[in-house]
Design goal:
The structure holds two protein chains of two kinds. Chain A is mostly helical. Chain A has 14 helices and no strands. In chain A, helix 5 packs across helix 8 and helix 11 runs antiparallel to helix 14. The radius of gyration of chain A is 24 Å and the shape is globular. The mean pLDDT of chain A is about 90. In chain B, the strands form five sheets. In chain B, strands 1, 2, 3, 4, 7, 15 and 16 form a seven-stranded mixed β-sheet that branches. Helices cover about 50% and strands about 15% of the residues of chain B. Chain B is α/β, with parallel strands linked by helices. In chain B, helix 8 crosses helix 9. The chains are: A mainly alpha, B alpha/beta. Chains A and B meet through helix 1 and helix 2 of A and helix 4, helix 5, helix 18 and helix 20 of B.
Amino acid sequence: MSSPRTEGGSSAEARAAWWLLSPALIAIGLFFAVPLLAALFLSLTDFDLYGIADLGTVRFVGIGNYTDLLADPRFWRAVRNTLVFAILGGPATIVAALFGAVLVDSKLARFRGFFRTVYFAPVVTTLVAAAVVWRAFLHPTFGPVNRILGAVGIPAIDWLGNPRWATLAIVSLSVWRTFGYCLVIFVAGLQSIPVSLYEAAKLEGAGTWRLTRDITLPLLRPTTFFVAVITSVGLFQIFAEPYVITRGGPLEATTSLALMMYDQGFRWWSLGRAAAIAFLLFLLILAASAIQLAIRRLRQAEES
Amino acid sequence: MSRTRPLGFGLVLLAATGIVACKGQDGDRTTVRFWAFGREGEEVRALVPEFERRNPDLRVDVQQVPWSAAHEKLLTAYVGNALPDAAQMGNTWIPEMEALGVLAPLGSRISRSKSFDRADSFAGVWDSNEVGGELWGVPWYVDTRVIFYRTDLLAQTHAPWPPKSWAEWRGAMEKLRALSPNHFAILLPIDEWAQVMTLGQQRGAPLLKDGGRRGGFAEPRFRAALDFYSGLFRDGLAPPLDQSGLANLYQQFAEGYFAMFISGPWNLAEMERRLPPEMQDRWATAPMPPPEAGGDYPGTSLAGGASLVVFSGATQSEGAWRWIEYLSEPAQQAEFFRRAGDLPSRRSAWTSTGLASDTRAVAFLTQLGYVSPSPKVPEWEQIGARLAVATEQVVRGARDADSALAALDADTDRILEKRRFLLDREASLKATGRNR
């Protein structure tokens, strides 16, 4: 997107443009900028339960909430958990979605509509209902997952009771839930690649691997970038999965930043602290997106 | 800003209709708005007609709020100035609501009323309604925790029962464990703080120190309780499961996966409903044992239950009080027990309903004489959650008891920082006021 410029236009035109834009600007200002500034201000206070009762008890603490958080091992634990979710879940979602998309888009595939629906179904499933089923699946003694593993001689795994496995369980649930959405985007990306390119390459004697590496993947790069950004933003904000499956446990191994923020804000009513977490999470997501953008720019520069 | 005016106007209109709708007038009757939670909210409606017959000038409007949303709803209603006249209130929330200043003091009303007889009630439960020397609630129904156990399995162990000390209790568990290698003696969900808090209180641990200003967990009495508790997991007597790790409590209890668990009165009815018929004569209840043999029996347990409160902003506080007085009468208590299954807060209602001679309910009656509330600071729920995490760390072997308790105290001190600030400020204000 290029930024709007007024150069060349008359000032009357510019004024008209402002008028036309004003409803949208006001709405954005009112529903985005004002709450954002209010939250920023909130994060500089110790507004809490006592503050709800009596505003006179609220203290302005400056960056106190931020320094407290940065010194709190539980905050860093939540950051680490969130990064683990993003680093494991992001690539897994992309690979699963791309693989699924290639299969669904394949000329050889039958019942494409059916499979597309099946893969997309988790996206529109109520997470709480899905979580109940997942919990039953992963139950250490009665769950089918461990029974199947047991049948091939793998000892029972305490999926939700062991911190490492619980992380993996949450990541799997998240991948299962979001890959269908990315798959649909990838299918659209695949269909926009001209068939003639493949035909030409095949005439030159290219095999499936070369076709994938030199045509499909490069031409899908904008799509992949988009999918990578939305999945990682989604994973940085991961909340519902740990909230309904593990409540952040065991041993707080699945407490994400968003879950910690919720607990601080709406379970314990430390709203100032929760607002500070929100801003740190915002900065984290901003940084991650900026890194992704930088990598993409670098690649483009290398190619041209 | 003109764009927003229709919305703002709409909100004002909405609020206005809300106010009109809530206005406590219905012909010449005054409406008392009452909130009750979960099943209680459903069952209490049946008690309304008799009250309205006796009080022709009053009407009671019962709002049912789900338990899961109750706490949040109370706070948002408070912020939005939409609290009713009276409500049911989990008695562990009372310190928090008192700190918010939303509750009306009830001490003088209670002492003037003829309907109350503290001797006919449970002192520990009344105590949970008292904060800073004033009463803020009236017990509606009572709740504490006792041991539910399999009589057939315990009979096989020939262990002395019910246990009169922690050592006897543990001895019975070890024998139960020896009966079958795949089964456990007791179920203690690893993410619950109530059990370990109760064990600490039995030892006399104060939990908090300096008048609720700082954490007091890293002291020998609490440490002893934690050692006893974590030892049950370490020695394989209790499975390291959290609440979600249990597939079905009743089924697994019937299968003998564990022979005892600690729970509250709601399970008296649930067990009758959910256990298979052949299991019905194989379970019973027992009070909590004290730490040492020869001490007061039973050992103390959680003082739970729900109270009835009047809000300080109530428009119909007199009517609300009459409604609460009515619900506290032994006859209404008995009727409410028959409908909702909640244990009455009046001893006379225990006799009239036959509860006092019910062998399973009697453990609760014995236990209710020895109950202690959780520490009365508004932050307790948050501290309890940290207590559960610290306990889990020790039980799962992620941390040794000393460092976990030191960290718990540090967490607690941080949580209570605001409370210390407010108490100090209040104290200094009082001091300067006196000097003047």
